[in-house]
Amino acid sequence: MSSPQISVAVLGATGSVGQRFVALLDNHPWFKVVALAASDRSAGKKYAQATRWVLDTPMPDYAKDMIIVPANTNAVQAKIVFSALHTEIASELEPQFAQAGSAVCSNASAHRRDADVPLLLPEINADHIQLIKQQRKNKGWSGCIVTNPNCTSTGLTVALKALDDAFGVKKVFAVSLQALSGAGYPGVSSLDIMDNIIPNVGNGGEEEKVEWEPRKMLGKLNGGKIELADIKFSAHTNRVAVIDGHTVCASVALTNPADPQTAEAILRNFSAPESARNLPSSPRPVISLRDEADRPQPRLDRLTGNGMTTVVGRVRQDPILDLKFVTLSHNTIRGAAGASIYNAELLTHLDLL
Amino acid sequence: MSSPQISVAVLGATGSVGQRFVALLDNHPWFKVVALAASDRSAGKKYAQATRWVLDTPMPDYAKDMIIVPANTNAVQAKIVFSALHTEIASELEPQFAQAGSAVCSNASAHRRDADVPLLLPEINADHIQLIKQQRKNKGWSGCIVTNPNCTSTGLTVALKALDDAFGVKKVFAVSLQALSGAGYPGVSSLDIMDNIIPNVGNGGEEEKVEWEPRKMLGKLNGGKIELADIKFSAHTNRVAVIDGHTVCASVALTNPADPQTAEAILRNFSAPESARNLPSSPRPVISLRDEADRPQPRLDRLTGNGMTTVVGRVRQDPILDLKFVTLSHNTIRGAAGASIYNAELLTHLDLL
Amino acid sequence: MSSPQISVAVLGATGSVGQRFVALLDNHPWFKVVALAASDRSAGKKYAQATRWVLDTPMPDYAKDMIIVPANTNAVQAKIVFSALHTEIASELEPQFAQAGSAVCSNASAHRRDADVPLLLPEINADHIQLIKQQRKNKGWSGCIVTNPNCTSTGLTVALKALDDAFGVKKVFAVSLQALSGAGYPGVSSLDIMDNIIPNVGNGGEEEKVEWEPRKMLGKLNGGKIELADIKFSAHTNRVAVIDGHTVCASVALTNPADPQTAEAILRNFSAPESARNLPSSPRPVISLRDEADRPQPRLDRLTGNGMTTVVGRVRQDPILDLKFVTLSHNTIRGAAGASIYNAELLTHLDLL
Amino acid sequence: MSSPQISVAVLGATGSVGQRFVALLDNHPWFKVVALAASDRSAGKKYAQATRWVLDTPMPDYAKDMIIVPANTNAVQAKIVFSALHTEIASELEPQFAQAGSAVCSNASAHRRDADVPLLLPEINADHIQLIKQQRKNKGWSGCIVTNPNCTSTGLTVALKALDDAFGVKKVFAVSLQALSGAGYPGVSSLDIMDNIIPNVGNGGEEEKVEWEPRKMLGKLNGGKIELADIKFSAHTNRVAVIDGHTVCASVALTNPADPQTAEAILRNFSAPESARNLPSSPRPVISLRDEADRPQPRLDRLTGNGMTTVVGRVRQDPILDLKFVTLSHNTIRGAAGASIYNAELLTHLDLL
Questions:
Q1: Is position C256 within any domain?
Q2: CB A132 within 8 Å of CB A106
Q3: Contacts of A303 in chain D (CB under 8 A)
Q4: Do C165 and C60 share a domain, yes or no?
Q5: What are the two backbone dihedrals, phi and then psi, of residue C53, each rounded to the nearest 5 degrees?
Q6: Does the global pTM surpass 0.90?
């Protein structure tokens, strides 16, 4: 597979997550971007004209002169379709693309809870990808829909997987400090966040996601369906004045309690399943375990492993449950666009397109 | 008591908490500032010259031309001595002032855990002030030492008191998002906090304080000593890019579980003990209960009740324990200088000077 | 004039400048708010419900339950009408109110350049108020329109007036560092300004205003019209991550060159014309001259004189022209709502309503 | 020159500019780091232990285990010595290294004004490098001292060079908005810059540098000495809440006035002298001319050309002089460590080591 031969498209390409897709797909070894789709307002314009670029790396050259097309199955024909659509639109459009034969790798929340749709972080539950066989049978699709979780769940769930495999996780308290880029552009007004925090994200919806999504990802695939993990979650979510990188403070109860040193070793040595280990976007390492007293920090650590690594630190005894720790994950790379691309790579690697 | 007649002094007057003392004592109805003390480096200079003023309200006129004196009992003679000293220095100097007959109202942590030193938030445990009788007996002092808690414990403990009285509190998870002014001046480097958070405060020491101090304040005074409240605490502390105002996300287990509406009513109607209710610095109200989905916010709410009120919001069911909520408290007013002044007012009101 | 008896209304009351009007009119000694007007979307709702309050002082009680009315002359009848409308709407509505007999004190730019409309900063050109006699004659109105300048021109022009009276000003270079609140709410996206500056405000329009408006205010009223001051301006405008307070770095050429010390004395001693000196919103002092090497600073100095004072510092020799200095002015108080209220007070004081 | 064979050392390697040297020298094609030197406090420790790393890219592996040595000529022997020392120390140590035979490429200001020391930006005045022949003759050194300018002068001077060559520059007004990293670490307190600007940098010293250094760089090398360019400068300097990237608003008078379009073409097409064009650190392009109305912006544009390119925008008519424009330059790359490395590459390329 020496030159990129698999056609891919981005739906919602002008938004902030769409931009991250466009950036991460630059020079991808397998994928060739054949279409950038956006709303009718942008369709027909060159990408460089229609897009207010907000990333601090320049817009890739390949994208600048591409003419934006409307987000429908006539205008967009690609083996893989990346979806950075808003939930309501995703809810309607993604099944149309799956029916038309595309593998839809979606960052939208619309189908995450569907029983036959994988909610995937390949480094922890690559086997859940097999759910698309059930999905194709149920829906009669030649394509499929594969989703990645909410950006706040992402890093937390990676750390929990390592602990769950080793000790069993029973209860999780999670308090997030989330970055501004998670709200899209223009997103959060500067007057709302300068010298301030907002102690709520998505009007409560974010907390529901963090309390449910990890249970699906940590669940077992059994007879064509996922059994949700039997773990209780309690989440508080906060928006803070950070550009990229979601931090989560977590306290967990374990079935077989472990001391911090043992847990650190488990976290440090955690590795992805064989199938997900050597893909272009595989996090290297899956978990970076920091032993400084004041890490991870978003500005310093969010780009670890090209933004795909989960950074964990401050593992210590919890006076009520068993362990306390802090996780950090880049919310628009590992937690959004990079996540969908990694999912697409897994589909490709396993010949499931 | 028509004009201020009680002499007071500020130790550590040039630092950021010291400045807050100087500002809050401007036009105080009872207290007259007779001395501003600081390190030998500043002694002998006018306050306006020696101080790099960092508050956004101007330096009071009364202070500008006062000559700074050294922080010792020869140079400082006052009925009440406010201490904004660093812990190690406070540890040594505060007893000297108590011995010399001053009522030391201290923001330092040095003596907070001493068995005969009250750790006081008058709106919740004004009765603990009686501990100074034991203290005077033990030490043979005519003065005394009275402390206020760590700024992060403050707002949390006020909210917990209301819930504990009504329902009994058994367990508390607390994650703080703390303001920069809590670290003093120059304190946190801008390069450490711009586009960033620091997931640790005081190298772990802050978490220990938050896990212990509320137990003393919520404890019972019995036979001249405090029985620590039987409540388990787990704390994570974070520094965020906020100038003033500490936010705490809390989850609590109750002896007699209550629904959020009932708890909100209890919080909204909480009032201070009679003796602490009508002092110049009494918070009015003690608790401001916000029902918007995204409050409290530090920039918008920290000055509620002149910075003495604890603001509580987002009271909701907790999926693991019983209730979740968010508290906000102004860390250099209610959580530091205002706290010591309120304590001094209680001493004065009860004729305990 | 012991209790407020003059009826006033605010047009555009829910926006960020409108909120500042509502806050500053709380307990005004002369003015009683009888109507708060906003767009049809808000009309009919209580002010507290329709408004996303963004100030860090609480919404005044008087306003909370007022029912918002539409911004037209049927719904709004008041002796004085404060306009926080957008330019295009102001252009149409303000003349209707003037015709209906209200004195329109406007923060909008729509009529600032009209030959018979005063552009007023009472502390420097109170005499320009007489232009409304010409205006009433021209238009046949019983009411009138009086405007205040753009927020960036404000502080700069006050400082220039003092220098112009003393030495004559010929040329002015001005580079602004403007606060976020000047863009309204939601205004500037947090992703556009965190760790960033935007080297342009209002897409060039702001620079035009700064290059023209001071010339009208520093001009002479002669025979019912203003002769623009013969001063050349060059302006660069920038948006920076500051909540309130516009800073301007200025270099000026003088007709009669002066050294910095002489200029400082002139600035320090500048006083308002008699008629504008003792009004409720008069700046006290008009100019605060700082002699520290690093002042004025927006966070520390913007509330000088309740936000009505112009703060000037760093007066020094300019290697090309004559003098360099820095001015600071609170952009939503002196530069917007406070400005219109001060204008209304001057009208009232001179019996020109 | 296939593998790095030239030995280099970094003096002041643990500070924020020193860290940038360490990062930029990772995988340098010509230079091999043989010593990292710092204060006695750090000497003897591993670099990873002694350094509080503040860059958002990870510490290079090569540096982590290097043992820090003291900054003297016994401990440090290298063909090229990069100096990130403080001025006073640089003043004393740099001549010692030059005497010992090292080419000292210095970011310190100590020797910038020395008549026989080149002040170099290779893309504009590579020929000034010849001044070291005079220097070696004067001092009897086998090594030499070569300096790069102050970070604020850098981008401005590059733009001025293009304009000066084409039209002649006579006068320059420059107002800077400077990043926090320019003050080193810990540098600016967060309490001094959050919601604030500081209208002065280096207590006036920065303005002097900006008013003098460009004159040397734009001057002519004639008979072994530099004739300062006959250009008048006026500078205001400000610190703003930006992590990296210095912005300068400039207005210039030209000998042969040009319209903005002509000037833009000149800026866009400016190229480095032949000798400085194809070095590893050569900016590509030298100048990036932006035509959007709101660029350059530090967060979006500072990494143009790997942080070595000067970004210019908003070229427009100036109402008093001839042209106005905005420049942006990465202050710790082009304006500090990258500058010294580029200078060293020029020395190497010209066989002047």
A1: yes
A2: no
A3: 56-57
A4: no
A5: -70, 125
A6: yes
